[in-house]
Write a structure and sequence with these properties.
The chain is built from 6 helices and 2 strands; from the N terminus they run ααααββαα. It is mainly alpha-helical. The chain has a domain at 62-127: Orthogonal Bundle (Arc Repressor Mutant, subunit A). A two-stranded antiparallel ribbon has the order 1-2. α3 (83-90) crosses α4 (94-106). The chain starts with 30 loop residues before the first helix and ends in a 19-residue tail after the last helix. Residues 33-169 form the HTH marR-type domain. It holds the Pfam family MarR_2. GO terms for molecular function: DNA-binding transcription factor activity.
Amino acid sequence: MQRHGGPRSRVSMTEQDDPRDHLYAAAPRSTVGGSTIRALQTLSRSTQDADALALQGLGMGPLDVRALLHIIQRNRHGHVVRPGDLVTTLHVTSAAITKLVDRLVRAGRIERTPDPHDRRAVVITATESAIADITEAFGHIHSPLVAVVDEFTDAELAVVARFSVRLAASLSRETHGEESTGPLPLLEPTAAGEA
């Protein structure tokens, strides 16, 4: 099977495509379902392109960014983060996390400090400069997201949220055999209107 790279070579369904011709699964039961899938594919491509731009701006790989986002979000909510937490969240080995943490410390993106509750363990926290870099890099995603969300009623958003959570859980079960417990791809605001 030939794989295509780059955003311009991705295979997608257009409005003229018949949902029954979709490569990956059975067609949805309705044309609205087909339109929804096409809209999600468009959103996915836009998100991938936006993420690629953010990664390029940060000069980091996707796994490092996911780790840093997790650390920032957990720290922001007052939670302690240990390297072992990243093993569970990122679904990688302890050895891979050790290398990742070392890389982020060398880059000045996180700091390692002794765990106040366990002298044998360490706690990792994001640096202020890393938080600023992440906020700037993902601002082009977060700002339009908030603007579009604010265009919908709470009832409409509740449906979108319910759909998103169910789809994320289903995909997580398929890929990891468990419910998703990882962070959202975007930083959560600490207060209303704050990015």
